[in-house]
Amino acid sequence: MSPIWLRLLIISLLANIIIGCQMLDKGTTAPPKIDDLSLKAIANQNQQISRAIVLLEKGEITEANQLIDEVLIFNPKHPTALSVREQLTQNVESIFNTQRKTNYTVKSGDTLGEIAEKWLGNSLFFISLARLNNIDNPSLLQPGTVIQIPVTETSEIVVKEKRRSTANLRLLEEYRSKRSFTKGLRKANTLFIIDQHLEQLLQIQQLILDGYAKASISISEREKMISTVNEIAKSSRNEKQRAQYQRFIHAQSRLLFLDDATLLFDEKNYLQAADKLVKAKQLDKDINRQTSVFRMEKLLINKLHEQAVVFYRNHSLKKALSRWDLILQLQPANELAKKYRQRTQKLLNKLNQY
Question: In this protein, which residues make up the domain named LysM (predicted)?
Answer without folding.
Answer: 102-149
